[in-house]
């Protein structure tokens, strides 16, 4: 095994301090191919200390100078886009084209967007006769960002870019399941001489490194993306020290299809929303709710499309669907399919593991799976699966569609397909979700608020929301 990753602490590559390592697997082959430091609370303490030391100088820089550093990091990442895309594809199992066209370009955009945004983020002032108020937005100090494995560099940059842009110093913890591109970005930061200590990365397990970061008294805020179970534990820990938290959690997103849906992009988009990244995107539409009069036609067309997806080697340009990320996750998704059958679901396509020939014979592949015949209350239709598995349910009326859409504990995103403008507005208003797309899906403008309601999270990311989260408002009142 050749590749050994390191932490980035105080601008230095720090290898496993206790000599403990975690294996990193290639999901397409099922083989370990790298080792990641199995960090601990001492590594977190060292990173926080480095970040605290760097904070006064970094926060005192004019926003334009901080923006220039973040832009330099974006330039260096963009210059190595192919290398990063190949690494992300290998680490997550996602098709190379997806990493090349979505993940890494979006990571570059995240850096550039928040570099630019920081230069436009201003104080507010409110004057009245004889009185002027102005509200300063001051960085918090050292902040922790914790990210998941499904969109590794995309979500890691989405969190640390606004934190740095607002003047904070960061200790980041990528997922131990997919740690490689964060490590590579740390190496890039060192190469361009990014100010030491401003941006630190500690690799390792959630229960060790993540928890130590959450519990560290000098960490002023935690921005977390991951499962609802872990997010809830983090909220409990942060409550004890009144640490600011932003939580982007799980989803069980509905796609509502009315018979009058504009058909041109419908199936392409619904198939993407169901199966992109093997269904491992928090925004994926996993519950397809279809108006009864159109149900049969839609179902048959969807199943034909799902069967036509090419499951296989992420490096093969013909592949549309790679493996799921890990053996435990493969087992979980297969157990969810077995549960759906036990609950009375009819598997219309997929439902099985796939064993490609050649180098991917031992990979963790699952055929795109469509299930019908289950009601809204069963576990299959209420619990997050996070794999290439969707269910179909029929509805008769707009109210019934709404009731089905809202019949889950989650509320992250919804995609709604209709030509009736009035209906689109009525439903968008009443759907319990932080993000509603009408006749589109995963159409993101980085200026817009992003986040979930109910069990899908707390707080919003994106645009000013992120910069507000990573700053503290201080109002100053002057009697003139
Ligand atoms: P996870 O919750 O298992 O892990 C996420 C991160 O938290 C990892 O880095 C992990 O090491 C860390 N962690 C685990 N235990 C911890 C603890 N006790 N303290 C601190 N950190 C800890 O999630 P995952 O399996 O990596 O990711 C999949 C989940 O993420 C899904 O539920 C998905 O819906 C969700 N997700 C949400 C969004 C969103 O924007 N809402 C985006 C992507 C993924």
Automatic annotation (TrEMBL):
InterPro entries: Ald_DH/histidinol_DH, Ald_DH_C, Ald_DH_CS_CYS, Ald_DH_CS_GLU, Ald_DH_N, Aldehyde_DH_dom
Native organism: Arenimonas terrae
Family indicated by similarity: Belongs to the aldehyde dehydrogenase family.
Assigned keywords, A-Z: NAD, Oxidoreductase
Protein name (database record): Aldehyde dehydrogenase
Domain of life: Bacteria
Active site residues per record: 248
Lineage: Bacteria, Pseudomonadati, Pseudomonadota, Gammaproteobacteria, Lysobacterales
Domain Aldehyde dehydrogenase: 22-476
Gene Ontology terms for molecular function: aldehyde dehydrogenase [NAD(P)+] activity
């Amino acid at each position: 095994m050749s590749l050994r990753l390191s932490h980035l602490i105080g601008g230095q590559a720090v290898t496993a301090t206790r000599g403990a390592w975690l294996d990193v697997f290639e999901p397409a082959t099922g083989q370990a191919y790298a080792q990641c430091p199995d960090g601990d609370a001492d590594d977190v303490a060292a990173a926080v200390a480095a970040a605290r030391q760097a904070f006064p100088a970094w926060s005192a820089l004019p926003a334009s100078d901080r923006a220039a550093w973040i832009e330099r990091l974006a330039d260096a990442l963009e210059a190595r886009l192919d290398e990063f895309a190949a690494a992300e594809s290998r680490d997550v199992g996602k098709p190379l084209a997806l990493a090349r066209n979505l993940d890494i370009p979006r990571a570059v955009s995240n850096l550039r967007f928040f570099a630019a945004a920081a230069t436009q983020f201003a104080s507010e002032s409110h004057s009245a006769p004889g009185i002027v108020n102005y509200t300063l937005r001051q960085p918090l100090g050292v902040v922790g960002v914790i990210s998941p494995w499904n969109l590794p560099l995309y979500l890691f940059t989405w969190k640390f870019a606004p934190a740095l842009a607002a003047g904070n110093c960061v200790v980041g913890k990528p997922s131990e399941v997919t740690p490689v591109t964060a490590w590579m970005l740390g190496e890039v930061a060192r190469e361009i001489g990014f100010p030491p200590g401003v941006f630190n990365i500690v690799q390792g397990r959630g229960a060790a490194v993540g928890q130590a970061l959450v519990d560290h008294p000098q960490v002023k805020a935690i921005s977390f993306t991951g499962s609802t179970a872990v997010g809830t534990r983090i909220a409990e820990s942060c409550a004890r020290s009144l640490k600011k938290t932003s939580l982007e959690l799980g989803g069980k997103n509905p796609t509502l299809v009315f018979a009058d849906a504009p058909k041109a992009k419908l199936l392409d988009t619904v198939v993407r929303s169901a199966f992109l990244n093997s269904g491992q995107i928090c925004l994926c539409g996993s519950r397809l709710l279809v108006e009864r009069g159109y149900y049969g036609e839609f179902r048959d067309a969807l199943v034909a499309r799902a069967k036509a997806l090419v499951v296989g080697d992420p490096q093969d340009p013909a592949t549309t669907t790679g493996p799921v990320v890990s053996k435990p996750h493969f087992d979980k998704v297969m157990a969810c399919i077995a549960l759906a059958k036990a609950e009375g679901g009819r598997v219309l396509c997929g439902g099985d593991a796939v064993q490609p020939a050649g180098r991917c014979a031992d990979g963790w592949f699952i055929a795109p799976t469509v299930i019908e015949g289950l009601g809204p209350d069963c576990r299959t239709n209420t619990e997050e699966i996070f794999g290439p598995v969707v269910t179909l349910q029929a509805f008769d009326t707009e109210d019934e569609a709404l009731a089905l859409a809202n019949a889950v504990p989650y509320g992250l995103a919804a995609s709604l397909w209709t030509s009736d403008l009035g209906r689109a507005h009525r439903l968008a208003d009443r759907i319990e979700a932080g993000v509603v797309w009408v006749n589109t899906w995963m159409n993101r403008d980085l200026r817009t608020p992003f986040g979930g309601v109910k069990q899908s999270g707390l707080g919003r990311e994106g645009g000013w929301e992120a910069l507000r989260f990573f700053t503290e408002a201080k109002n100053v009142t002057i009697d003139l």
